Amino acid sequence: MPRLSIEIEARLLDVARLLVDQQRARVIVGAQGNSAGYWFGGGNLTRDPRGRLVLVGRYRNIGDSRTGLAAGQRGLELAIFQSPDNGQTFDKCVSFSKADLRVDNLEVLSIEGSALHWTDDGVELFVSSEKSNIGYPPEFGAYLKPDTGVWTIERLHAESIEGLKSSKPVTILESSDPGFLHVKDPAVYDSPHGDLLLLFCTHPYCWSSSNSGFTIRKDGQCQFSSPCYDFFPRGPAWDVAMTRATALVDLPSVGVLADSRVSLLFYDGGESIRNLDQHSAAVRRPRGYSCEELGGVAYVLDADLRNVYRLSHDLPAHVSPHGTGCSRYVDVLQTDDGYIATWQQSQTDFSQPLVINFVDRRQIEQFLSGPSIQTRKLVS
């Protein structure tokens, strides 16, 4: 399917920046430390059947897998919060330790990204973690660093949020392919056909890049399809090393989208895995690197991931005005009256709390129906 016009794509970028507004964002869950390496996020915001906002994410404390997890606590706790006041405040209601998410003899070394999804018979929690006792394929065994592991994704299911605590994690996604050996950071999207789309991130055995994959659970089925590990290629410039899809959200079919079904695909990107020294005489800019990614956006036509087009082609779309510029793990919840965006945002102390921004649906529709921001600037 051909991509949309340049004018419409500019409008979509306007909408993405309206949702991920760095200046309007406010902190809802803080990190456990006020320095680099501490954050909360990597999850999603949902509404339960009673209409309450429910949030999941993980606390991460400083640590470095290059030297083994003994260097720090890393992902030490998965937490679920409920909001008693429609998003103004959030109270923790369920917490999972590394031991709680153990799978048989596979000890959890670090808890990673997660996603909640409501079903007809309750709620399911998808969570990724780094585990010991898996190992690399024999021919690559020497590349596994001491005291580190392999990432997989598990599913927990219960009738209620509280019941998830006693649910047994069951592995639903793992890989032995050296090019996509680690799978992590699940994100969910309910397709218009009733299918569940599970987005996830992959890394090769050598941790030299980050890629986006997906798998589908057809409506009425229990099992997910064989995964596609690389539906969204890494970019040509600022995101050449990393493209990690984190959220897919439908836009209203109004204005310039009146004849189209368009969804925004948010992703994390970076120029390299490790921080690069910058030339003292060159333009200094956030480059994005592992754990300090910048925000990108693409769009998908007709809910078909074969029709995905990058909007943040040459430069990132979302950069924090603080710290390293990191702005990542965007999630967007669509409600009856608007859109609620959450993401991890670097602060002046280099921590990454979870921040939130609400945009009224009428404002989104206005952006899609009126002149684009660039057009407004030209005529003002």
Strand content: 35-45%
Structural class: mainly beta
Task: Write the element-wise H/E pattern from the N-terminal end onward.
Answer: HEEEEEEEEEEEEEEEEEEEEHH
Number of helices: 3
**From the 3D coordinates, which CATH architecture of the largest domain would you assign?**
5 Propeller
What does this structure look like?
This protein has 380 residues and is mostly beta strands. The radius of gyration is 20 Å and the shape is globular. A hairpin with a 7-residue loop joins strand 4 (74-83) and strand 5. The protein contains three helices and 20 strands.
Could you name the key traits of this structure?
380 residues, mainly beta, Tachylectin-2, Chain A, four-stranded antiparallel β-sheet, 3 helices, 41% strand
Short description:
The chain has a 4-stranded antiparallel sheet. The longest helix is centred in the N-terminal third of the chain and has 14 residues, at 6-19.
